Amino acid sequence: MTARELRGAPVAAAICEDLAPRVDALKGRGVEPRLAIVRVGEEPGDLAYERGARSRMGKVGIACDVSALPGDVSQDELEAVLTSLAGDPATHGILLLRPLAPGLDERSAIACVGAAKDVDGMTPASLAATFTGAGEGYAPCTAEAVVRLLEHYEVQLDGARAVVLGRSLVVGRPLAQLLLARGATVTLCHSHTRDLASECRRGEVLVSCMGRAGAVGASMVSAGSIVVDVGTNDDGAGGITGDVDYASVSGVAAGVTPVPRGVGSVTTSVLAAHVVEAAERLSSGR
């Protein structure tokens, strides 16, 4: 068996195609959708995501501003920037690149944003909406991107056994909830999971968001399963590599996402969709 490569580009293109008339409608009313990215320091991963996000926003007609703060920025200075953006009517979405530098209080910083402009599911209100299916806010972009990719490739989720590797609030736990909402039976694995390989083999859908290069090999994958790799690890040569050993896993699974050219482009497209929706809500007073 040779797995089908589940690339992100077609999924991203479909999302952005749907956004085009909505952006045009907003601009026709004098509203320019605008994303503000706040970055602390110059971590390679943050810079890469910033580049991808700015490129995506430009392609769909969303304005994008970047507040690049020094790595030694104070908590007060960071929160002043976020508070200013939260109060700026021309800004519809705020993306704070995380994790923050050591010494900064991430929770306190996030609290300055507010759910209405939290387009990456950072705030407690946004996470509550993700877990309950009701309320203000948006799901974390990467978690939603995984679901959108699976749905685009017509992967049956209702009744499927899904395994998620990683329990962070950025991807793992919200993703598990999104899969549950679509009828999947979900196992959430983490560093204390016993016999991890055995648990993984139970999954008809396996998603890895551990952040460990090459951690998922063929012995952890069941024949005919769908494997989604969310990992973006430094490959030591200036590029990125995923959590999944693509070469070995593609000989067992029915479909695998590559890294790069996989979930990343879908994530920035979901981000764009959230900004457009936020602009629609805020400009209409909702």
Short description:
With 286 residues, the chain is an alpha/beta fold.
Note down, in words, how this protein is organized:
The structure is a single chain. This protein is α/β, with parallel strands linked by helices. Helix content is 41%, strand content 15%. It has helices spanning 9-28, 44-60, 75-86, 106-110, 124-132, 141-152, 172-181, 196-201, 246-249, 263-283; strands at 4-5, 34-40, 63-69, 93-96, 161-165, 185-189, 205-208, 226-229, 233-234, 240-241, 255-256. The strands form 3 sheets. It has a 6-stranded parallel beta sheet. A 3-stranded parallel beta sheet has the order 3-2-4, with helices on both faces. A two-stranded antiparallel ribbon has the order 9-10. β5 (161-165), α7 (172-181) and β6 form a beta-alpha-beta unit. The longest helix has 21 residues, at 263-283. The N and C termini lie far apart (50 Å). The model has no long low-confidence stretch (mean pLDDT 95).
Structure keywords:
41% helix, 3-stranded parallel β-sheet, 286 residues, alpha/beta, 6-stranded parallel β-sheet, 11 strands
